[in-house]
Each structure stands twice: as C-alpha cells, then as structure tokens.
Design goal:
It is built from eleven helices and six strands. It has one domain: Outer membrane efflux proteins (OEP) (Up-down Bundle). By secondary structure, it is an alpha+beta fold.
C-alpha cells in the first residue's frame, strides 16, 4: 500500500496553513499555520495571478539570491538551512513578529514617565472687556480696554506619569503575551519551512530516480529492438515482433522525455522555496533511502506533539492575552491617578528670568460612559471564549495530524517492503522472458509485458520510498520541532 500524493505535481503539498497577517499587522488569532492549496510556484509566475499566489501561500516563494555560476552541491540539511534563511513565508513571519514587538513597546511607553522640554516666546495683548475685568465703581481711574502689547519668554522641563492605571497595565501585559505568541508562531513557521523544503527535496530525488529508471528501460528497449531486428532479418521471428519492439522503444523514449520534464519542474520548485536563482545549477547529494522508525509509537508521538508544538503554545499565549485584556476592560471602571510637574524660568528675556514651576495630581473616575465599558467587556469576554474553543480544537487537530501522519507512515512502510519484493520479482520475470525469447520459446509480446511490469514495479518502488520519506517529514512536522526531529527520524541525515 502507498500514499498517493499525486507526486505533488512537482510542487510542495504543504499540510499547513497560510500564515496569518503576512504583509499586515499580526493577528493574535493567527497562531497556527493553515493548509494552503497545492500550487506549483514554478508555473504561472508571469501572469497577473502571481501576486495573489504569493499572498495566498508565501511558503511557496522566497527571496531569490544571485546565481553563483558554479554547480552547488545541495544536501537535505543544506536545503533546509537555505529555506530557513530565504523562504518568503519565514521572512514575512519575522517582520510580523517585529510588528508585535513594536506594539508591546508602545504599550510599555504609556506606563513610563514622559519627559518633555518646552520653550516659548510670547507676544500678547489682552482685552480686559473680553475677560470681564472691572474696577470698583468708586475707583479713582478706569481701566483701558486692552492691556497693550507685551511679551515674555518661558522655558520649562516637564514630567508626567500615570501613577495608577489598571487598564493600561493590563494592556501592556496582554501585549507581552501577544509578543510571546508571535515568537512561538515564528518557531512554528520554521517547521512549515522544514516540511516544505523536505517534501520538495524528496520530490526532486524521486523524479531523478524516475529519470534513471527511464534511461535504463530505454537502453533495454533499444537492445531488444536491435536483437528483434536481427531475428527478423534472419527470418527467425515474425515482422510483428520488430514492430512491437519499435513501439516499445519509442514509448521508452517518450517516457524518458516526460521524466526529464517533470524533474526540471521539480528542481524549479525546490529552487523557488529555498531562495536559489532559477538559473542556479545545483546537484542533490542524497538519494531516496529507507530508514526504519524505531523507539517511537503513535502514543509517544502524540504526547510529544502536545508538549512541543509551537502553534499550540502560541494559542495558549493568545488565550492568556485575551484573559488579561478582559481584566483590563473591567479595570476601566477604576479610578486613574496621574501626576504632572514642570520647572523652568520665565521673564521678559533670558537675563530677567524668574523660577517658575507647577505640580499637579489628578484623579479621574468614570461615572457615565454611555455603555462603552460594558460593550468592551462583553467583546473581550467573547474573545476569551473563542480563544478557549480554539485551543481545545487545536489540541484535537494536533492529535489528528499525528495520527494521520502515523497511519501514512505505517501504510507506506508496508508499501516499501511490498514494492521491493515486487521489483525483484518483476526483474527476474523480465530476465526469464528475454531468455525465453532469445531461445525462441516465446514471442516478443511476453517480453513487452514483462518490460511494462518492470516499469510499473520500479515506479511503484520509487513512489513508495518517496511516500515513506514524506510521511516521515509529515510526522516530524506533526510532532513539532521539525528541525531536530527530522534528522532523528531520517537516521541523522
């Protein structure tokens, strides 16, 4: 049994989700990476939908580097390292995390003292009538209508401080939790990149193996074509055998052409994800291999995932932020105590300055806000309930991801073993058919059927190995901490 991933169509079938708020401000609800639609970034990149594709799934893109002009030897570890440096999804995730950090610093600034310096040069004329200034009726003289023009200078240093503001304090605490959630989301996005690059790397290896198999089949078809032609010329075999041999050779040639075409597209996909230039020549240093899974069970993998998954930790941090925000909304009903003071000099000019200062304390108590505070509390309470439901759902999703990856791994493990045996049997059957044909015991039709059986067995073997390795990568992603777990599952490679 094998996993039919449709060969990923030369693209990375990410089992993850579009990272929220790419190119936008961080959305606290977007702590998890969702499953994007399967898109091949090596195709349709010059049409108007390219930007939409980029926004839909930035993990299938990268920041391309310049070609070195030399052949680059690329291992799986090296490809992952490049993906973690240049993949567009991770780059945007880092910028989103920086935005959240700026929001936290902004919230902190509202709790810290504000120090300002202010200098003024004033020219003024006051209207005594405007301010209602009058002398007593029995005064010996009357005031003029205006004071006349005068001027003065004033320079001061002022400080203000929120002495007690529970709402601002809780807002800062909520932003700290959101910053923690964004850091955890950044870690989770690294797991996404590991999966994306790993799957694309395995796809290229599988396609290269199919090309090698197609070349071997073509060589065999050419040899049999020549052998059949000689037998027809010697009137040992009928002409129909020669026709069948020519059809088989031409089919093998077309199979090789198709395999080479798919390989080049898969190489472009890997280049797009890892930041390689499209014209950068590179060679993969690893081949498809079978690494038995030891010391891991479905139950232990699930427990490990619930401890290690960064998206779950991010969801829990976002829940804590929502709870603190709810407390902050309730705290709007409490008094706010603030303090302000300034000190400086004032006078007609700098040489005639006199010391001036002011000190003020302020207590503000909300009495009636038109129901605004109640609305804020209800909205925050609803947000908490939603986050609680999301955390519970995410735990179920993680358990589901591990279980599905484990089932795929078990099925593909069995598929590899069956495909290995079938490949060996098909090769033996082909060898016997060729011997029977050479000895005139059978006709060429039996050889053609044996060749097709070998081709199918080889393709099934390659697909089974590919599916097994992708299932390994999926399991490492499902368990969390894919950067380290993938090396462990793939035998330290």
């Amino acid at each position: 049994m094998k996993i039919d991933l449709n060969r990923m169509a030369g693209a990375v079938m990410l089992v993850l989700a579009s990272y929220p708020a790419y190119g936008q401000s961080f959305e606290p609800l977007g702590y998890s990476v969702a499953t994007p639609r399967p898109i091949n970034p090596s195709e349709n990149t010059t049409n108007p939908s390219a930007q939409a594709t980029q926004r839909q799934n930035p993990y299938l893109g990268s920041v391309p580097q310049k070609s070195t002009g030399t052949v680059l030897k690329l291992s799986l570890t090296g490809a992952i390292e490049r993906g973690l440096r240049f993949n567009l999804g991770l780059v945007e995730s880092e910028h989103s995390s920086a935005d959240v950090r700026a929001d936290r610093l902004r919230a902190l600034a509202s709790l810290l003292p504000t120090l300002t310096a202010n200098a003024r040069q004033v020219y003024e004329s006051l209207s005594f009538k405007e301010i209602g200034l009058k002398l007593p009726p029995n005064a010996p003289f009357q005031l003029p209508s205006t004071s006349g023009g005068f001027g003065y200078q004033d320079a001061r240093v002022g400080v203000s401080q929120q002495v007690f503001n529970a709402s601002l304090r809780d807002k800062y605490r909520a932003q700290k939790n959101l910053e923690e959630a964004s850091i955890l989301t950044l870690r989770d996005s690294r797991d996404v990149v590991v999966f994306a690059v790993g799957a694309a790397y395995m796809q290229v290896i599988a396609s290269a193996a199919r090309v090698a198999t197609a070349k071997a089949q073509l060589d065999s078809a050419r040899e049999l074509d020549q052998q059949t032609a000689d037998r027809v010329n010697s009137e040992v075999s009928p002409e129909i055998d020669s026709l069948r041999a020519q059809v088989q050779r031409q089919s093998s040639e077309q199979r090789l052409t198709n395999a080479n075409n798919q390989l080049e597209k898969d190489r472009l996909t890997l280049a797009r994800i890892t930041g390689l230039a499209i014209d950068q020549p590179f060679e993969l240093t690893e081949e498809l291999a079978y690494h038995p899974l030891n010391n891991v069970t479905s139950e232990s993998a699930t427990e490990d995932a619930l401890r290690s998954r960064s998206d779950l930790a991010s969801a829990e941090a976002s829940l804590h932020a929502a709870e603190v925000t709810l407390r902050g909304q309730k705290a709007q009903r409490l008094p706010v105590v603030s303090f302000s003071a300034d000190y400086g000099g004032a006078g007609v000019n700098v040489g005639n300055f006199n010391s001036v200062y002011s000190i003020a304390g302020n207590v503000s108590v909300p009495i009636y806000t038109g129901g605004r505070i109640r609305a804020d509390i209800e909205q925050a309470r609803s947000d908490v309930a939603r986050r609680e439901a999301e955390v519970a759902d995410l735990k179920g999703r993680i358990t589901y991801d591990v279980r599905v990856a484990w089932l795929d791994l078990s099925a593909s493990d069995s598929g590899v073993k069956v495909a290995t045996r079938n490949k060996t049997l098909a090769e033996k059957a082909l060898a016997q058919s060729q011997d029977r044909y050479s000895n005139g015991v059978t006709n060429y039709l039996e050889v053609v059927q044996a060749q097709e059986a070998v081709a199918a067995a080889n393709d099934n073997y390659i697909q089974s190995l590919y599916s097994y390795n992708v299932a390994m990568i999926s399991l490492s992603r499902a368990m969390g901490g894919a950067e380290t777990k993938l090396k462990m599952l793939l035998g330290g490679n």
